[in-house]
Fold this sequence. Notes:
Layout: E1 2-7, H1 11-23, E2 32-38, H2 85-93, H3 105-113, H4 122-138, E3 144-150, E4 153-159, E5 162-167, E6 172-175, E7 177-180, H5 191-202, E8 206-208, E9 226-230, H6 234-244, E10 250-253, E11 259-262, E12 269-273, H7 300-308, H8 315-338, H9 347-357, H10 361-371, H11 381-385, H12 396-415, H13 421-436, H14 446-465, H15 470-481, E13 485-489, E14 493-497, E15 501-505, E16 513-515, E17 517-520, H16 534-543, E18 546-550, E19 555-561, E20 568-570, E21 576-582, H17 603-625
Parallel strand pairs: 1-2, 1-7, 2-3, 7-21, 8-17, 9-12, 9-17, 12-13
Antiparallel strand pairs: 4-5, 5-6, 10-11, 14-15, 15-16, 18-19, 20-21
Helix pairs in contact: 1-4, 1-17, 8-9, 8-13, 12-15
Amino acid sequence: xxxxxxxxxxxxxxxxxxxxxxxxxxxxxxxxxxxxxxxxxxxxxxxxxxxxxxxxxxxxxxxxxxxxxxxxxxxxxxxxxxxxxxxxxxxxxxxxxxxxxxxxxxxxxxxxxxxxxxxxxxxxxxxxxxxxxxxxxxxxxxxxxxxxxxxxxxxxxxxxxxxxxxxxxxxxxxxxxxxxxxxxxxxxxxxxxxxxxxxxxxxxxxxxxxxxxxxxxxxxxxxxxxxxxxxxxxxxxxxxxxxxxxxxxxxxxxxxxxxxxxxxxxxxxxxxxxxxxxxxxxxxxxxxxxxxxxxxxxxxxxxxxxxxxxxxxxxxxxxxxxxxxxxxxxxxxxxxxxxxxxxxxxxxxxxxxxxxxxxxxxxxxxxxxxxxxxxxxxxxxxxxxxxxxxxxxxxxxxxxxxxxxxxxxxxxxxxxxxxxxxxxxxxxxxxxxxxxxxxxxxxxxxxxxxxxxxxxxxxxxxxxxxxxxxxxxxxxxxxxxxxxxxxxxxxxxxxxxxxxxxxxxxxxxxxxxxxxxxxxxxxxxxxxxxxxxxxxxxxxxxxxxxxxxxxxxxxxxxxxxxxxxxxxxxxxxxxxxxxxxxxxxxxxxxxxxxxxxxxxxxxxxxxxxxxxxxxxxxxxxxxxxxxx
Length: 628
């Protein structure tokens, strides 16, 4: 019997199991046992567990979520296709999946109403992942046992015949191959957060540090209290949902179709601000009408030229200008070919203008103004990134009104069929994200690896392409109209006054907001050695190492585990473990996520299949040679 133990049982782990089993052949006669260890049930794991608020949703449409490989995937392992989340729900509706039983009336109603462009609840996603797990186990080939061991891994020890995996409850599991397939983990609080929390508590105020929203203790925020929410991404949106609808407030439609909010009286007053001062861009619901998106600037040839040069590749200097130009091409190709009535010249003519000046923002703005009459149809990257620019405001009311106007415009652009250029923009930035996967990680400069890719690029990509469903921003507007939400604007700074509470100010306008509580609404920063997961901390400090990068211009730590391209953990002496693997956002490769969009040759599926191939080879080598 060959034993593979997988630390974790969320989407990455069960997708890895499927890939390992897909590779098993008739020649693999020796029995194989795969054990997943996680305190949460397989499929959803901690983040996508069933036991969370039914108000929390995915920020992806049902048709855009899959855990299955398909014919678009360029992988070495066999393709085993299956339904997207939307297709799965349709099969459940039609009674074609007898192994799916839903007894929750709300989820049954959701399944009945779900369509491809719906944004599903996380609880429904949990059922989809659970079904994928059970299906994977049910069709496991002969000689394979797959099981779940509830519990938390504390440490992993090397023993003569492989590894011993120790659980918090005292259970010990023997393994010939170990895979850390963990998703996003929490982090031990940093000293600044601990100091702020202690100081706030001593003065009688509340501070909520970065955390997964479903796990945050929002009960500490009193009804009617002023609360500053720092951050306007997905974690912030989820917190707003739980503190409004989650406390009994209700949305309804007026006769004119606009949304209004009826408070329950148990909500706090929420003051939202961030560096940009605006929420993440809405997810796009329109469809491309014109010529299909294609890579015009960040092409395979352009990447090959970068790789052919000696030395490292710098993201900000070498690649970001190509991405910015690519986004320009994506937007205007769709505008000119999909909506020729909205421009005064042809795409053939304007594409030549783009080719000549697409790197010159000022010249391009002048050229666009001549042929694109409606300012809402015009596009440039600086305005996309910082929509409030360097604007200043007379007072808090003025900045609140300006942010509200921006949110309304963003919704118009991203949900109206006549503004389908935003869909082309989304597809273009997604293509750019995938293109970066073609650049080996060791070719990037030190600063690119430590800062520009994981922070600058990832944050911009998330802001543009991974924002909330449109209805969440519509709800924000209704909450603003009801006086429950106030927008503080950009360049927000917050300090604790022990006498008054948390004080928020911005150099963009006069005045201040004083609150009894502060919520830092973003996910915990990555850092394997600082993780709240004991197994991951041990991996970083004993069996593996965090990646440190340095060159003549920069030195720093990624906070992520060093692995080779096949997922083998790099030991502290620089050698690769033959039977110890890691896969997930805590590793030093380009972050690819877990589940993904169908028919996109997704990086996550390619990564998972590649690691599965190496895991299978390690298990086979152990069986043949009898060595670890």
